[in-house]
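Our consortium's second objective concerns turning raw sequence data into structural hypotheses that experimental partners can test. To show how far this objective has progressed, the report includes one record in full. It was chosen at random from the queue rather than selected for favorable results. The single chain below, 126 residues long, was entered without modification.
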Amino acid sequence: MYSSRQIAKSLKVMEADQGAEKTASKFFAFVGRYNLWNVVPSVLAHLEGSADKSDEFETLKVRAPYALTEDAERKIRKVAGADKDTVLEFKTDKSLLGGFVANYKGFEHEGSLGRIVQGLARSIRE
């Protein structure tokens, strides 16, 4: 089951890709098909709350243990799906061993060294 917050985030992503009218049409078809009319007020509340955070939603936030080179920034933008005009907010995070963590449009893209090592360890165990 999806929470009203997850549905609201998905609607924001869909709206950016497909436009408001098409997104609304698909949303109400989904709600009707699965009889989810009771979640509409909660989804609306999340959307209204997120409208204030719209700029934050459209900002690419990157954490890394080192300053980003132009090449690294370009690659992170590509992975996250952000274009060159998207505002990038960078924060040095010494708790990361290497790599980066990027948040954009409600999604986290983790390319940290810790995650890579965990994946490697999991594949060795299998």
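The partners drew two points from this record. The chain has a mean pLDDT of 86. The two ends are 30 Å apart (CA to CA). Both points have been shared with the crystallography group to help prioritize constructs.
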